[in-house]
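Dear colleagues,

As part of the handover before I leave the project, I'm documenting each prediction I ran so the next person doesn't have to rerun anything. This entry is a single chain, and its sequence is reproduced below.
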Amino acid sequence: MDHKGQSSSDKRAVRRVLRACRIAVGLASLLVLAGTGVAATMLSELTGALATSDALGAGSPKSSGGDVNLLLIGLDSRKDQDGNPLPPQILDQLHAGDGNEGGYNTNTLILLHIPGDGGKVSAVSIPRDDYVAVSGIPGYTHAKIKEAYGLAKAQAEQALAAHGVTGKADLEHQGREAGRKKTLETVRTFLDVPIDRFAEVNLAGFYDLATALGGVEVCLDHPVADSYSGANFPAGHQTLNGAQALSFARQRHGLTNGDLDRTHRQQAFLSSAAQKLRSAGTFTDLGKLRALIDTAQKDVVVSAGWDVLAFAQQARNLTGGNLEFTTLPIKGYAKIDGQDVNTVDVDRVRSAVRTAFGAPAPAAPQVHASATVDVRNATAKTGLAATVARALAPYGFRDGELTNGRGTSAITYGAGAAGDAATAAKLLGGLPVTADTRVPAGHVRVTLGPGFALPPSPGPPGTATPPGTTAAPPPAGPQGGTVDGSGVPCVD
């Protein structure tokens, strides 16, 4: 962006910083803009200036029939793309602390399904504290889904530094690319659906989008006052400016269902922003139109190869009000390794995604294991070997030896037990599997290394929870139902 003509150095500094900001909901400006019939020359200008990422990879699975699954990644970072903290005047506006909070968590993950036949667009929000399987991160077999980005980023930066990369910006750029790749992989594995496109935006995007629109209307069922986020609003319909909109979308303290209710706020913001973009005058005001394009250019990173002009036709229902949001279900709350997490039933989550996207259910897998399972506990969690053996028993595994020892999380097997070893690996979160002639025929040997945690739902309902884990039922209130994206929905 050209900064000539700015009246002060402070304004130039603020514009430079905001150019580097990203937040998931800021992507709405790009998506809705694409579907409103804006001149092709304007969209061409927008497309050419967007930052792109190769994190998806050329060989990643793709949807069929012209459908597009689009993942919105909202990064809760107080740093710009070079790793520098946002200046205090920006953080003060955003109620975002001193710049050290947030880390690199993906506090917003929304997967949109845009049918190739022009049907209704469906969006599913993934609660940020869902405890899911992760791979390729040393010391972790499971983590909160929001942590995959930051854990992979830190690992990549350590490896780069060990190979002599010292530039702060280089480490930041390559680290973020590793974070994107791991987030895409984790979401794809968790939901068992392809991801065709993605976009990442960061904390100031709410602020920028609402400001560019001249404010966004929201509706609250109850008045709120929260010092953490800065949200202080009466009940009913009201129009929020940029800073207020960010407070509205970030609040979780004082809400009945905490983060789940915050997810509904994010959905309501997207719906209301789309409503504002549909309103008369938005695209006849050249000043607003330029501000929206500037917002998309400075606040959005998209997957490489995205043809926005072609996507505009497919995304038309995002601006026609034919959009529905759903929050994916959780099984309950638990404390694992000192962290508060959401436990999930993976099969139920995947079923919810298929229902929302109108996809057929897969054939039910038939599991009839017969191997004897020996479990070695190499963690500090007393009784974990017995708990794992009990979790595997409903699938036909026979009880073997339970021992304590050393080792990393892995599965080995003897003659005739390859299939059962693969089944056990899948049930236990994707552990590596190898044949071993030292393991008796018909036996599967499971080693539980440091950092191993039993998946929240590896077996049928009622499977025991790992020792050291305290569990609680799911929230008493609704987990969200659906949020109508055709107007300004009222939320808690």
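Residues 413 and 435 are 5 Å apart (CA to CA). Confidence is low (pLDDT under 50) at residues 1-39, 458-470.

All the best with the project,
I.
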